[in-house]
Amino acid sequence: MTPLTDRRSNPMNKMTAGPPALSGSRSLILSTVCSLLLAGCSEQSSPGEDGEAAERVQVKLALNWFPEAEHGGYYAALVHGLYRQEGLSVEILAGGPDAPVIQRVATGAVAFGLTNADGVLNARAAGARVVALLAPYQTNPRCIMVHEHSGITAIEQLADVTLALSQRPAFSHYLRRKYPMTGVVVVPYHGGVGQFLLKPDFAQQAYVFSEPVIARRQGAQVRTLMVADTGFNPYASALIARDRTLAEQPELVAAMTRASAAGWLQYLRSPEETNRHIHELNPEMDMELLAEGARISRDLVLDGVSPGKGVGYMTAARWRILEAQMVMAGVLESGSAADSAYTNRFLP
Predict the structure, then answer these.
(1) Which end of the chain is more exposed for a tag (fewer CB within 10 A), N or C?
(2) How far from chain centre, in Å, is Cα 161?
(3) SS in 3 state form for the chain?
């Protein structure tokens, strides 16, 4: 598999043993929002047919990791021509371990990037003027993966295990401050599931549609404990740009945000073509794994906010709660960046 090092641990840049299927209500939400948002996205001519390709605005989007299902909506906007319809020619740049996404956006090396909400707050506290524009994952995919036989059914019950956690991301500090973790030996997280498969008293951080799926394939009985259930729930895979781009090129920002939101609805509705493209870019992500990732993503993207506000909408309360949690965890010195760290004004 693609090396599963701590791909989301850089602050400057997975649920139950068997994830639930998309409920009927979620299906209705998806169908309704798709109809509204995709109504104006009719197919247009192929790139280059009448010279329009040369007229499109050239845009770079930096990913925080190698192409995976967590980026599905953005790739769907590319594959299905949604960026093209907005007059954009988008190049999606694969990331990797500790990809410097925020630095590249903040310096103008790329116009857009992807990171989590806690990364945005850390960045702004460090002076990087980046802003979240769209947050597809309303429920963060981060989880703690344990063996079913451990009897542990919630993160607060973690005890007498070896727990692999990265030392840098905010969630790691938050969990260790909030819960006693009696008898828990915290060790560095180096990626993969090798140690988990070998050691019955081993637990580790994960993304719910990645490492747990891989471990189950290799015969492990896995239970996933969502970090979001503890209350620490940063928006994930958020589209970001710098303040200057918002001020100087608002039409570009609006076009990129609209097409990306439509791309997420397209991906959740019909991910197969996009998954084939992701598989071509990252062969270690096979079609079965990508299909599972898309299926699990539906419940993480579509929530109670989506029907009224649309995919990607963010609230001030969520940002302020996250900021306070990060201060409590000792990750931020003070809370003063939440209200300026995001904007909904470019959403459809």
Answers:
(1) N
(2) 28
(3) CCCCCCCCCCCCCCCCCCCCCCCHHHHHHHHHHHHHHHCCCCCCCCCCCCCHHHHCEEEEEECCCCCCHHHHHHHHHHHCCHHHHCCEEEEEECCCCCCCHHHHHHCCCCCEEEECHHHHHHHHHCCCCEEEEECCECCCCEEEEEEHHHCCCCHHHCCCCEEEECCCCHHHHHHHHHCCCCCCEEEECCCCCHHHHHCCCEEEEEECCCHHHHHHHCCCCEEEEEHHHHCCCCCECEEEEEHHHHHHCHHHHHHHHHHHHHHHHHHHHCCHHHHHHHHHHCCCCCHHHHHHHHHHHHHHHCCCCHHHHCCCCCCHHHHHHHHHHHHHCCCCCCCCCHHHCECCCCCC
Domains and CATH numbers, the chain: 24-139+234-340 (3.40.190.10), 142-230 (3.40.190.10)
What local confidence, expressed as pLDDT, does residue 11 receive?
Answer: 37
Cβ-based neighbours of 293, under 8 Å, separated by 6 or more = 68, 69, 70, 72, 209, 210, 213
The model's pTM: 0.84
pLDDT at 25: 46
Alpha-carbon Rg for the chain in angstroms: 20
- Between CA 128 and CA 53 the distance in angstroms is 33
Rounded to whole angstroms, how far apart are CA atoms 10 and 144? 18
Residue 200 contacts residue 125 (beta carbons within 8 Å): no
Residue 289 neighbours by CB distance under 10 Å: 20
pLDDT means per 10 residues, the chain with 348 residues, are 42 37 46 45 40 81 95 98 98 90 97 97 94 97 97 97 92 96 95 94 96 95 98 97 98 98 97 98 94 96 75 96 95 86 96
How far the first Cα of the chain sits from its last, in Å, is 37
Task: For residue 107, give the amino acid letter.
Answer: T
C-beta separation of 79 from 273 below 8 A: yes
What pLDDT, on a 0 to 100 scale, did the predictor assign at position 51?
Answer: 52
Q: For 337, list phi and psi in degrees, rounded to 5.
A: -110, -10
